[in-house]
Design brief:
The chain is α+β, with helices and mostly antiparallel strands. The chain has 2 domains: about 120 residues, no CATH class; about 150 residues, Phosphoenolpyruvate Carboxykinase, domain 3 (Alpha-Beta Complex). The chain is built from 7 helices and 17 strands. It has a 9-stranded mixed beta sheet, with no helix packed on it. It has a 5-stranded mixed barrel with strand order 10-11-15-14-13. A hairpin with a 2-residue loop joins strand 1 and strand 2. Helix 5 packs across helix 6. The longest helix has 17 residues. The chain is elongated, with a radius of gyration of 20 Å. The model has no long low-confidence stretch (mean pLDDT about 90).
Length: about 290
């Protein structure tokens, strides 16, 4: 395998074993080779993962992180299962080795599992970009992002806007946020969760809407720490990396100064659309 991809402004190469399956959502971001890739991921299929003889830097149920000077290594597993299916190990600021357990190759058919191999959030934060857990829709040429914890109704609200206002959902679970010519844009991402909706598309962000289920529909503008804390909780952040955290906070502070953040208490009716529309587009235009 020798293939090239661009996600946001990160241009990279995946090189190695030919029989590694690449999910269709990830393939959306494949681009022609132009010999200017910034980073190369080297894939290796092994019977057993190499041993890491370093002190554990951080641990969670699906990840063990090791810090090796300025680089990072990760043992990657699936929540609820024993054993890791992959080892990610940076070898320089331009490349990383990825070791895949041969018996676990089937799990790579899932876009979330495949994308987890590449520690993408580390590359994105270096490029002034944030990954937001949200349903990303395009309406009147701009992006509106519905964000909230899982099972709150992000995809449902995006579906309501498609049904009643003719919007278009770009991704049902994630968006990459980055500045293009000084303007915050939502960009496509290769993981879409259970929504099944994953497309490319970069559009200026009109608003971010934090959802909360309710019997009645009501919308409020969030500012300051309210807006910051609500969005921070839905951003992918490596909490064990102080430099990462500080950079994410800096970017998020800039985001909320430029982009209106709203909270919508909502049900699953057209009235929820009307309530939010009156706040986002008070004059009926964008």
């Amino acid at each position: 395998m020798d293939r090239y991809f661009r996600i946001g402004n990160f241009y990279f190469r995946i090189f190695g074993e030919e029989n590694v399956y690449i999910p269709k959502n990830f393939l959306l971001f494949e681009v022609p080779q132009d010999n200017n890739q910034e980073f190369t991921f080297y894939l290796h299929i092994v019977e057993e993962l190499p041993t890491i003889n370093e002190k554990i830097h951080a641990r969670r149920s699906d990840l063990i992180v090791y810090k090796i000077k300025d680089e990072e290594a990760r043992l990657i597993s699936t929540k609820g299962q024993d054993g890791a299916y992959a080892l990610y190990r940076e070898i320089s600021n331009q490349g990383a080795d990825i070791y895949l357990v041969a018996d676990e190759m089937e799990s790579l058919h899932y876009d979330s599992v495949f994308t987890s191999l590449f520690a993408m959030e580390r590359q994105m934060i270096k490029r002034q970009s944030l990954i937001l857990h949200c349903a990303y829709m395009k309406y009147q040429g701009r992006a509106v992002l519905f964000s909230a914890p899982s099972e709150t109704g992000k995809s449902t609200q995006a579906d309501l806007w498609e049904r009643y206002r003719g919007s278009h959902t770009v991704n049902g679970d994630r968006a990459l946020l980055r500045k293009i010519d000084g303007i915050w844009n939502a960009c496509g991402w290769p993981v879409c969760g259970s929504s099944g909706i994953c497309q490319k598309g970069d559009f200026p962000i009109h608003a971010i809407v934090m959802l909360r289920q309710g019997k009645l529909n009501h919308v409020d503008r969030l500012t300051g720490m309210q807006a910051f804390s609500q969005i921070y909780s839905q951003i992918t952040i490596n909490q064990w990396n102080r430099e990462f955290v500080m950079k994410a906070m800096e970017l998020l502070d800039d985001l909320i100064k430029q982009i209106p953040i709203w909270r919508l208490d909502c049900n699953m009716t057209e009235d929820a659309v009307q309530c939010l529309e009156s706040a986002l587009f008070p004059d009926g235009t964008n």
